[in-house]
Each structure stands twice: as structure tokens, then as C-alpha cells.
User: Which sequence fits this backbone?
């Protein structure tokens, strides 16, 4: 028997794609008296079937064994550590899902307002340990897996980091999620589910960085829940016809359509059942396979659309401070903002609940344009009303003022890929900016050119930071100094135009205990589950417990630090095969490799120390404080100079560590493949950490905070959050050096037009450079391009800061020689820096360092009882008109 196939049905789903009930944001129907109706079947039978959390050891082991049996289809005989990890993770996930479900229902019933954090990067690291700590179940799981013949630490080590981020920006996003969940705030994250996260860094025998892909999803990911029926169609290319009916509307059609599929990642709060959501989008072809092409024998064309769709969420771009104007990158940005907004709009329309979005940096700026398109073209909202909604909805956080990081997109590219969006950008530029600027500053054409969204040139470019600024309700930087720079440099004209009140500061914070050493927690009795393990509660507890340095605390602290140093030493032994002297001072610089972060200054300082040691007699050397210097960090694959710095570090390490004259006093380690997991080993072990950017270039920095929380002192420049940290922990506990921000511009001018040879500026530095050039660490010629950046132009001002850097290093040596005093400093640093744990603050607490832009201005509060909120609901209804 043959059946007839309707060609029109090929590739179409047999039933509607969207199974509405699996979406969040639905409530039970109510009867005439307003009582909720049970939707189907017998309520009691349903309720008896619901499971509760597994918190006791017997129910935990039962759950793990069940997962081995049914989820993994394995047996006790065939279970390795990886399988046991997967079963344990699935069992923990069951608990998270129970909490997740209840939380989302609670939000739907109660929460009047939600915040959404849009970021292309979420650097989450590992999930199992974090979930166990947040659920307060680590001890129970440890006992449980032991009863099943495994060791929890071994299982934790099986998990691959979720490396969906480059560095500080992505890690901050992860901290925000953690904080919001821990403080019971209804916030969701939206990002992309990259198939390949940040590349794996390998170091070749001659010290070069090599990159390998990071197939982190290889063994399936127990922490995500595919929501295949939550999907949206996203269009690219095609053409846009304006309607010319005075409405400003247009119809966008044709081109390529792809599907955004949702994957949900549970974000557990600490010491609360509140569990938030991170929704990551995967791109799939709208129709998987072009059957016509296949039948015509053109297999390549048949799979082409699926290949090009999959490419959109295939890989995280590994550049953290440069933009290249690549079409695929723009596709990623639009795909993600359009899918996220569609999802948010659906929830909003379903519940009539107000939204507050955060465009956290310039990546999601297209969301501003997309929301205009949806409101004007699809929802038929008048342009002016739509613009008012848009500019009430978004909050823009700037994370850098480096010129090379300010995103610009070529107009022809935008016109081709997103024709309707380009029209909207031109309209916003004309009607919502230039006309108003001309009115306020008549005849000031230069100002118009500077402020326009369009930068003239061949081709023209769209300035995304300007768009983010004018399309947002508030703009902020991430530390006081940085926010000042935003106001006085890149967005100065906009401050003149809007007034200062739109431009604030929200200094970054850090997740409560990402890296705070676990041992210290037990020792300061914060381990009890009833203790406030997160946010302001924890910060108060640390301050109270550690605030007054007592001699008992001092010795306790020493033991803790020592054990963390030994853990790091063990890691180095296992991974590099090198022995670490755990009695030495541990000096750590771990961050993305970038000229502005000046790892080069650090390695040149190490070489100087080495040369100084070599010139000493053995008796003199005996007086020197032994030091281990640790580096870790990845360079963008195309960043030649940064990669040369890695090569120099690795080759200097090779020489120094093998030198019998000095190896008892100085050792150097470059730890490959820096990750959140590695940071968790390195940070608690540090005595001193380096944050030595050229003044005015590091927006905030966040690892500086994590080091302080772990009792590591800072050696740094007067830059970013270093300044506020020092204000809090006391300037005697921070080692500052270098020129200040206001001097930088003039110094650069002098270097450009009136250069002075390095020999005159800093003989010490000149000696170091000569030694490298002359081949002390292998072929000196290799390093010439790197050394030339210092000898010529010296944009990052190493020659200016080198001598004061050496002085600061000596001050560290001197301070460390009095170990009791040093430990006191370390304790004070942890205690005082604990204010950084206050991540998300509600205005009702009247605290200053707020973290979520929704609350920064103190105008909007969560919860249905807030009268302002009701006003906003009404406003939105009016706009929808
Ligand atoms: C980082 N920015 C800052 N990328 O460098 C760091 O100081 C800060 O602590 C951190 O953000 C969190 O606020 C960063 O990693 C960017 O700023 C991007 C550059 C390319 C365009 C989009 C922003």
C-alpha cells in the first residue's frame, strides 16, 4: 500500500510546535467565587504524586541509584567516576527542579516586576559543588556517595566548567545570577548556548599558546533542561517595506528564518529555596533539511541551511576587548536579543506584568531596536509611545572605555542582515536625537556629528554605545573612577544633553563565596546551614567574626592559608610536574592577557628580581623572602603581542626555576588553561595579587575583590575598583604605585612627540630589556615586537611606572617579613572587604552599592504592594493602547 504525501507538509511539525502549558507564566483558572480550580484529574492523586526534596542520606542514595539504573541505564558493576558524577548531578538537579518549579509559580503569582539580565557571556564554572553548598547538602551527599563506594571530591572533579565567557564580564554575569537567586529576587538571565565555550589553552614546548576547541557538552550536560517546545522564529536578511501611512510601520519579510530553542539552567540561591533561571538559546534550522534539493541530488545545498543556522550558536567569540565587525557575531547578537525579547514579551502579555531589562553592555543594544520594531510594526504602538516604553525599559552598564572595545557596526552590513533595524536606527537618529540636540544646541554642527548614531566614513558605522545610551533609562559604569570617565569622555556630550542624573555608578561586587576558602568558613563557624551564607548577612557575619584580629584568629588564619597553599602546590605538581615551596610568599596575577593589564610589567619585574638575586652573594640571598610568582590567563587567539608575553613568561620560568643559585628564592609558574575552577584553587592560596593596569584602563576588576575576600593583599595601580577596595580595607593594607589617571594623557603625548630613551627614564628597566634581547631566555629576537611596544610609544606607560612598581614590590617584601603583622593585615582585608559581598541591594535597605539596575535609582521596588509598580503597569497598558 502506498500513502500520498502532501509536499506542503514536508518538514512541518505534525502538531503545533508550541505546547503552551510547558511555558512559564500560567496560573490556574478561577471559578465564579475567585477560587482556583484544579485543572484536571483528581487533585489528591496529583498531589500525592509530587515528590519533595531529598535531604536525608537514605533518600539521596536512593535517588542516585535510581538515576544510575534508569537515567544512565548502568549498573553498580559498570559505574566509573564520570557515571557516578552524572547520577549524583541528576539527583541534585531533581532537587533544584522542585525548587525551580515552586519559585517560578511563586513569581507568577506574586512578583509584580521582573528583571532580565542580557549577556552574551555567563562564565558559570562548575555547578555541582555550588548547588550542594547552596542547598546545604554537601555533607549528606558526601556521606551518600561514600556509602555507594565513591568519593565526592573525585566526582566533583569530573565536571567540565561551563566556560561560556571570556573573563570579568562573563563572571560578573554569573555572580549577578547567584546574588539575585540568593536574595529572592525575580531575575532571569538570557544568553546563548554555545556548543564550544572559551577555547582550551595549551602551551607548546617553546612556550607558545595554542588553542583547542572546548566541546563542553560532549558528555551531555545534566544542568540544563531542554525546552524544545519553547521556540521562536528569528528572521535575517530579506527586505523591509515602509507602509507610508503615517504610522511609521513597515513590513519585514523574506530572507532566512531560524529557530531559537530554549535550554533552562537552574540557578540556586544560597540558603533559600529560591531558584532562578538562566535561559540559553540554541539556534536550529527552521526546516532541518531541504528535501527538494536532496531529491535533485544536491545534498550540500540540502544541508546548507541547517549548517548555517547551527553556526550561529556554535562558538563563543574569544575576544574580550576588541570587535571585528564580523557578520556571524552580529547574527549572534540579533538572534539572542530577538529570542529573549520575544520570550519576555510573551510573558508580559500573558501576565500583564511590567518588565525591567538590563542591557548590560553594548552586546545587547540591538534589543532597543528590536523592541521598537515589535512595538511599532507588530503591536501597532505609535512611534513616540513605543520610544517612551523602550527608554523606560532598558538600563545600560558600560564595562570599558577602551576605544578598541567600543562596538561599531558597518551600515552596509546592518542594512543587509537586518534591513528593518537599520531603518529604525536612522529614524531614531533623526527624530529622537539630532532634532532634539539641534533644538538644545542650535547650530552646533560638530556636536551633532559627534552625537549622531552614525559615524561618517567609508563605510558609515553605527555607534552602538550611543544607541545604548540614548535608548536606556539610566547609564552606569562599574566603579567610581570608571563611571567618572564614562561621564567625562565617551559619553560627555550625552551628559550635557540629558543632564547628569541619567549617569550613575554601580560598583561591581562579587558572589558571596565563590572563592572564599572553604576551610576558613568551617573555622569561623559559618558552616551551619542556618547561617547567612550569602549577601549582606554573610558580610556582617564575616565582619563580626574577623573584625577584631585576635592572636587566636591569627594562628588559625595562618593554618588556613597554609593548607590552601599546599592545595595549589599539589595542583602544580600534578599538572606541571613541578615542586612548589609552600613556605614562600605566593604572588598571583591571573586574568586575560592584555597589554592594558600589564602582565608584561610583572614579568619584567620578575626578571629584575632574578638579575638582582644573581648579583648577590649566597649570604645576601639568605636574607631574601622566597617568592613564588603565579601567572594564568588566556590571550585572544589573534592577539600577537599578548601571546608573546605568555611565551616570555614560560621561557623565563624555565630558566629561573632551573637556576641553582636562585631557585630557593624565586620560582615562576604559568598555569595553562585558566578557568573558574582554577581560580578557586589559586585565589585562596595568594598572599599578594597583582592588579596593575595603566591608570584609567581597568573599568573595575572583580578578581581583586575575590582575592581580598580570601585574605590576599593587593598590589595595584590607582585604578578601577582597587580604589574603593583600598578605601574600605585601609590604604596601609594595599600596596599602590604608579601614575594617576589624570597624568596619563599628557604622558602619552610626551611619549609620542618628545620620547626619552628607556635608559634615561629607567636604567633598571633598560637593563632588564637588554638581558632579554641578548638571549638570556632563549632567542631574544622573538621578543623584539613585544619589547618595541615599550621602547617606542609605550602606550601603556611601563617605562613611567617601572621604578615605582619595584618600590612597591620591595614594600611587600618588607611587610611580609613581619609574618604576624602580615596575617593581621590579611584578616583585616577579609573582614573589611566583606562589604563587596553585598551584591544586590533593594532600595528599602537604603544601601548604596546596588547591583541591579532595576533598583539603582531607588524608584522601583519588587513586589505587588509597591504603588509605583501599579502605576507602571497602568503606563504599560496605556502604551499598548
Ligand atoms: C570587563 N569588561 C572589564 N569586556 O574589563 C573589567 O574591568 C570589569 O571588572 C568587568 O568587565 C565587569 O564589569 C569586559 O570584559 C567588555 O567590556 C566588552 C568589550 C567589548 C564590547 C562589550 C564589552
Assistant:
Amino acid at each position: 500500500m502506498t500513502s500520498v504525501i502532501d509536499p506542503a507538509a514536508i518538514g512541518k511539525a505534525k502538531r503545533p510546535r508550541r505546547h503552551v502549558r510547558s511555558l512559564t507564566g500560567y496560573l490556574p483558572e478561577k471559578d465564579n467565587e475567585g477560587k482556583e480550580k484544579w485543572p484536571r484529574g483528581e487533585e489528591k492523586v496529583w498531589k500525592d504524586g509530587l515528590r519533595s526534596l531529598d535531604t536525608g542520606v537514605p533518600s539521596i542514595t536512593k535517588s542516585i541509584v535510581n538515576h544510575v539504573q534508569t537515567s544512565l541505564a548502568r549498573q553498580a558493576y559498570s559505574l566509573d567516576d564520570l557515571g557516578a558524577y552524572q547520577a549524583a548531578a541528576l539527583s541534585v538537579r531533581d532537587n533544584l527542579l522542585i525548587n525551580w518549579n515552586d519559585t517560578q509559580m511563586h513569581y507568577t503569582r506574586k512578583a509584580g516586576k521582573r528583571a532580565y539580565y542580557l549577556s552574551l557571556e555567563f562564565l558559570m564554572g562548575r555547578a555541582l559543588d555550588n548547588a550542594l553548598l547552596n542547598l546545604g547538602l554537601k555533607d549528606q551527599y558526601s556521606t551518600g556517595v561514600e556509602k555507594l563506594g565513591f568519593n565526592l571530591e573525585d566526582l566533583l572533579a569530573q565536571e567540565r566548567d561551563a566556560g561560556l565567557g571570556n573573563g570579568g564580564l562573563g563572571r560578573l554575569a554569573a555572580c549577578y545570577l547567584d546574588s539575585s537567586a540568593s536574595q529572592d529576587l525575580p531575575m532571569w538571565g538570557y544568553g546563548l548556548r554555545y556548543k564550544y565555550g572559551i577555547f582550551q589553552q595549551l602551551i607548546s614546548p617553546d612556550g607558545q599558546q595554542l588553542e583547542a576547541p572546548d566541546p563542553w557538552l560532549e558528555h551531555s550536560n545534566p544542568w540544563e533542561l531542554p525546552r524544545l517546545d519553547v521556540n521562536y522564529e528569528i528572521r535575517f536578511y530579506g527586505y523591509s517595506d515602509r507602509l507610508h501611512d503615517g504610522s511609521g510601520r513597515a513590513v519585514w519579510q523574506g530572507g532566512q528564518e531560524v529557530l531559537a530553542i530554549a535550554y533552562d539552567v537552574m540557578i540556586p540561591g544560597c540558603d533559600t529555596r529560591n531558584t532562578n533561571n538562566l535561559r540559553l538559546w540554541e539556534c536550529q534550522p527552521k526546516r532541518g533539511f531541504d528535501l527538494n534539493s536532496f531529491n535533485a541530488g544536491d545534498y550540500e545545498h540540502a544541508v546548507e541551511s541547517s549548517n548555517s543556522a547551527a553556526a550561529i550558536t556554535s562558538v563563543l567569540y574569544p575576544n574580550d576587548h576588541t570587535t571585528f565587525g564580523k557578520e556571524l557575531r552580529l547574527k549572534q547578537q540579533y538572534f539572542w536579543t530577538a529570542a529573549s525579547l520575544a520570550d519576555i514579551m510573551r510573558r508580559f502579555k500573558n501576565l500583564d506584568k511590567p518588565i525591567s531589562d538590563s542591557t548590560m553592555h553594548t552586546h545587547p543594544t540591538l534589543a532597543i531596536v528590536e523592541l521598537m520594531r515589535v512595538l511599532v510594526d507588530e503591536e501597532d504602538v505609535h512611534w513616540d509611545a513605543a520610544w517612551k516604553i523602550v527608554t523606560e525599559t532598558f538600563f545600560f552598564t558600560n564595562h570599558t572605555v577602551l576605544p578598541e572595545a567600543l562596538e561599531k557596526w558597518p551600515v552596509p552590513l546592518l542594512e543587509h542582515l537586518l534591513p528593518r533595524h537599520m531603518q529604525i536606527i536612522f529614524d531614531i537618529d533623526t527624530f529622537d536625537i539630532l532634532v532634539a540636540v539641534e533644538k538644545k544646541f542650535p547650530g552646533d554642527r560638530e556636536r551633532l556629528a559627534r552625537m549622531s548614531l552614525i559615524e561618517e566614513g567609508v563605510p558609515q558605522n553605527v555607534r552602538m554605545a550611543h544607541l545604548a545610551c540614548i535608548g536606556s533609562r539610566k547609564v552606569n559604569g562599574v566603579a567610581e573612577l570608571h563611571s567618572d570617565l564614562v561621564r567625562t569622555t565617551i559619553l560627555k556630550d550625552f551628559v550635557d544633553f540629558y543632564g547628569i542624573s541619567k549617569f550613575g555608578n554601580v560598583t561591581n561586587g562579587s558572589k558571596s563565596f565563590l572563592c572564599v576558602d572553604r576551610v576558613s568558613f568551617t573555622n569561623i563557624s559559618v558552616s551551619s546551614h542556618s547561617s547567612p551564607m550569602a549577601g549582606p548577612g554573610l558580610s556582617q557575619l564575616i565582619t563580626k567574626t574577623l573584625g577584631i584580629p585576635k592572636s587566636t584568629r591569627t594562628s588559625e588564619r595562618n593554618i588556613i592559608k597554609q593548607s590552601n597553599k599546599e592545595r595549589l602546590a599539589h595542583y602544580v605538581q600534578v599538572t606541571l610536574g613541578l615542586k612548589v615551596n609552600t613556605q614562600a610568599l605566593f604572588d598571583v596575577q591571573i586574568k586575560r592577557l592584555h597589554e592594558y593589564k600589564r602582565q608584561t610589567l610583572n614579568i619584567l619585574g620578575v626578571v629584575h628580581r632574578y638579575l638582582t638575586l644573581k648579583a648577590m652573594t649566597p649570604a645576601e640571598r639568605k636574607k631574601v623572602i622566597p617568592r613564588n610568582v603565579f601567572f594564568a590567563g588566556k590571550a585572544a587567539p589573534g592577539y600577537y603581542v599578548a601571546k608573546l608575553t605568555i611565551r616570555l613568561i614560560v621561557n623565563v620560568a624555565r630558566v629561573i626555576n632551573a637556576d641553582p643559585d636562585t631557585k630557593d628564592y624565586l620560582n615562576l609558574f604559568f598555569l595553562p588553561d585558566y578557568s573558574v575552577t582554577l581560580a578557586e584553587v589559586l585565589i585562596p592560596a595568594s598572599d599578594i595579587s597583582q592588579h596593575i593596569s595603566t591608570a584609567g584602563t581597568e573599568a573595575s576588576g572583580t578578581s581583586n575583590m575575590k582575592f581580598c575576600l580570601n585574605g590576599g593583599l593587593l598590589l595595584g595601580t590607582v585604578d578601577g575598583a582597587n580604589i574603593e577596595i583600598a578605601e574600605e580595607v585601609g590604604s596601609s593594607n594595599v600596596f599602590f604605585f604608579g601614575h594617576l589617571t589624570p597624568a596619563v594623557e599628557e604622558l602619552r603625548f610626551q611619549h609620542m612627540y618628545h620620547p626619552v630613551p628607556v635608559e634615561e627614564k629607567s636604567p633598571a628597566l633598560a637593563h632588564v630589556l637588554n638581558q632579554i634581547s641578548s638571549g638570556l631566555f632563549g632567542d631574544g629576537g622573538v621578543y623584539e615586537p613585544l619589547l618595541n611596544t615599550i621602547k617606542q610609544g609605550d602606550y601603556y606607560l611601563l617605562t613611567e611606572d617601572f621604578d615605582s612598581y619595584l618600590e612597591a614590590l620591595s614594600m611587600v617584601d618588607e611587610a611580609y617579613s613581619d609574618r604576624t603583622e602580615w596575617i593581621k593585615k590579611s584578616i583585616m582585608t577579609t573582614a573589611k572587604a566583606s562589604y563587596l559581598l553585598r551584591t544586590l541591594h533593594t532600595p528599602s535597605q537604603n544601601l548604596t552599592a546596588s547591583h541591579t539596575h532595576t533598583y539603582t535609582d531607588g524608584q522601583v521596588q519588587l513586589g505587588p504592594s509597591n504603588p509605583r509598580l501599579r502605576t507602571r503597569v497602568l503606563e504599560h497598558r496605556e502604551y499598548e493602547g
Summary: The chain is about 45% helix and 15% strand. Residues 167-169, 172, 320-321, 323, 361-363, 399-400, 405, 407, 478, 508, 698-702, 720 surround F58 (CB under 6 Å). The domain at 578-838 is CATH 3.40.50.2000 (Rossmann fold). The radius of gyration is 28 Å.
